[in-house]
Amino acid sequence: MDFDFLNWSNFFALCLVxxxxxxxxxxxxxxxxxxxxxxxxxALQKGYDADGPGGSSLTxxxxxxxxxxxxxxxxxxxxxxxxxxxxxxx
Length: 90
Description:
The protein has helices at 8-29, 31-49, 60-89.
């Protein structure tokens, strides 16, 4: 038998496919957390882009919006963990 397909290129391609699959499964499981983190990033970018280049001050309203997004992220993480604990109690 000839095993020409067993080479380093195919090994790394297989690792890439398996890594993509694992990343997709993790992303699907933590979708709500990832969405909340995306909203937090947008709020931070909006707050700091409003100052223009080199600006680093945030208004009180921008700080409150960012804090609200941080709380939303924490809430989604706690909700996810709470569901995991419920699963183990069965």
